[in-house]
């Protein structure tokens, strides 16, 4: 990985860890690594071995390609996004009720388009 890719990897790793409400120490312990390793990965100063990358992807429940690339097809699925992430709009966190309304609206859009075709 070049410096930019390491930084992007670190940003994704940090975001995923926080979404799982884990500390760097918790994540490190869960994969048998030192807390400092996680911090180095997140800061883009070190890159994980393939073995560590596999452990991180399993622990964070994301495909490896999501960790190392910003365009995995699996994360384009709106249902998965709505069910797995804390969502915000203009800096305001959406409530569970708002997310449910958003899901219903998306279903409405999908079904109305199916009726038109």
Automatic annotation (TrEMBL):
The keyword DNA-binding applies. The keyword DNA-binding applies. PROSITE patterns: HTH_CROC1 (PS50943). InterPro entries: Cro/C1-type_HTH, Lambda_DNA-bd_dom_sf. This is HTH cro/C1-type domain-containing protein. Keywords: DNA-binding. Residues 13-67 form the HTH cro/C1-type domain. Pfam families: HTH_3.
């Amino acid at each position: 990985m070049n410096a930019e890719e390491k930084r992007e990897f670190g940003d994704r790793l940090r975001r995923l860890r926080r979404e799982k409400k884990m500390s760097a120490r918790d994540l490190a312990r869960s994969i048998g690594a030192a807390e400092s390793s996680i911090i180095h990965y997140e800061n883009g100063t070190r890159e994980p071995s393939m073995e560590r990358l596999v452990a991180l992807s399993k622990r964070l429940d994301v495909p490896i390609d999501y960790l190392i690339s910003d365009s995995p097809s699996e994360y384009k699925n709106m249902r998965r996004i709505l069910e797995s992430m804390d969502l915000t709009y203009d800096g305001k966190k959406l409530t569970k009720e708002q997310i449910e309304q958003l899901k219903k609206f998306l279903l409405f859009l999908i079904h109305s388009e199916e009726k038109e075709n």
